[in-house]
Write a structure and sequence with these properties.
Length: 419
């Protein structure tokens, strides 16, 4: 009797194990309805309202944008090749021989502040980028013969620039997939580069591929030393990439480029996972600046950008060096506000005047103790006002230099132009 009970128990155990395994197999075989892959961008042609996770498949109708303003640049920066916005000013550089950085006010692009990078050499400076503590200058232009073995990025400590004695170190690198260093002739290589961004832990290069008219993406360490830039992916830009800007907080990369007939365009990468750019949205937008050799791009707010073009003259076409303002809110606003749109309705506020000179008046449905903060474009907190029993607050800004600032209340930020 005892042996019979043991046999029955074993048989029951086997049946239960079989039932559990069968259930697990069925569960794993059924697609998960918690995460529906698809195009999550409402602006896309193939937007899926049921998709909960972006799979990078969004497609878009042809789009173009016009520059709202054009500002003349001095002949001193006729070969402007990169652009950043830092410390309330736009910073640029030339691409050949000149070892100086140039800073200009957004309200006056003709007066330049000059910062020599003494002890360096400009073989072909093609881009400038930044993180919280450093400015980076890419000496990696390689279109002459495609065979440079001295590619480098200069790293300059920001605080040292402000003191007038720049502290500079160097990142040397080579491409992981370049084995042939024979001369290719002018504009005949896929190992040229004019654009890069700096993330929290790495540098990402966006190459200017003359042969394939595409863009290779490479990553390398952001620390001084000698590195191998690892190939990550290829972007089918159908054009030559010349500049880049990174909004790391919102995961938006804005690339600048032009076609083989000098038709400028912007190439957006956004809503990607980690730093896998192919996992997010990829959108190309034509810029209505025909025959402009656009080289630098930067942002003064999440949707307001500046583009620079260098002097160009060929045959009957001559284009002077200029700076252009571009508003990308119609392309990015939906994405940037998607997660906080409901919250913003409860925390909206306004201010006037804009542009402002000495002070601004801030109005909103504030609670006592609410804080309204004014930030520089690079995230530095400059001023704070605290709400009392009044719904109208005042902020003095006469002591600030002219430029663009962000006024933030909770999760809502507005752009302030100081003139």
């Amino acid at each position: 009797m005892f042996n019979s009970e043991i046999s029955m128990a074993r048989e029951l155990f086997r049946k239960n194990v079989k039932l559990v395994l069968t259930t697990l197999i069925v569960l794993f075989a059924i697609p998960s309805f918690g995460q529906m892959l698809g195009c999550t961008d409402p602006l896309a042609s193939n937007f899926s309202s049921s998709a909960t996770q972006n799979d990078g498949t969004c497609t878009y109708a042809t789009a173009s944008i016009s520059a709202s303003n054009a500002f003349s640049l001095p002949a001193t920066v006729s070969e402007t090749s990169g652009l950043i916005f830092w410390n309330g000013k736009l910073w640029t550089h030339n691409d050949d021989g000149d070892i100086q950085l140039y800073a200009m006010d957004t309200a006056n692009t003709t007066a330049l502040e000059i910062v020599p990078l003494t002890g360096t050499q400009n073989i072909d400076w093609e881009e400038i980028s930044q993180d919280q503590n450093y400015i980076y200058v890419g000496d990696f232009g390689n279109n002459l013969n495609g065979n440079r073995t001295d590619l480098k990025i200069l790293r300059i400590e920001k605080n040292s620039i402000l003191t007038g004695v720049p502290i500079i170190d160097t990142l040397n690198f080579s491409y992981s997939n370049q084995q042939d260093f024979s001369q290719t002739g002018a504009n005949n290589t896929d190992f040229d580069c004019e654009a890069f961004i700096v993330s929290a832990d790495s540098i990402y290069l966006f190459t200017k591929q003359w042969l394939t008219n595409a863009c290779g993406v490479f990553s390398l360490s952001k620390n001084p030393g000698t590195h191998i830039a690892q190939f990550k992916t290829t972007l089918n830009t159908d054009g030559l990439i010349t500049g880049a800007h990174f909004n790391e907080a919102d995961k938006v990369i804005t690339l600048l480029g032009y076609s083989t007939v000098l038709q400028p365009f912007i190439y957006l990468l956004y809503d990607f996972s980690s730093m896998d750019f192919m996992s997010g949205n990829k959108r190309k937008i034509s810029v209505s600046l025909p025959f402009y050799q656009t080289e630098g791009i930067t942002a003064v707010s999440p949707t307001r950008f500046f583009i620079s073009n260098e002097y160009f003259s060929q045959s009957i076409i001559t284009t002077l060096q200029q700076l252009h303002a571009v508003d990308l809110s119609s392309f990015l606003h939906t994405y940037l506000t998607a997660d906080i749109s409901e919250h913003l309705q409860k925390t909206a506020f306004m201010f006037h005047p804009n542009p402002a000179n000495n002070a601004i008046t801030i109005e909103g449905d504030f609670q006592i103790g609410d804080t309204i903060n004014l930030f520089s474009s690079n995230g530095k907190l400059l001023q704070t006002v605290i709400a009392d029993s009044n719904s109208e607050l005042f902020m003095e800004i006469s002591n600030l230099p002219n430029g663009v600032y962000l006024l933030k209340y909770k999760d809502f930020a507005l752009e302030v132009l100081k003139r």
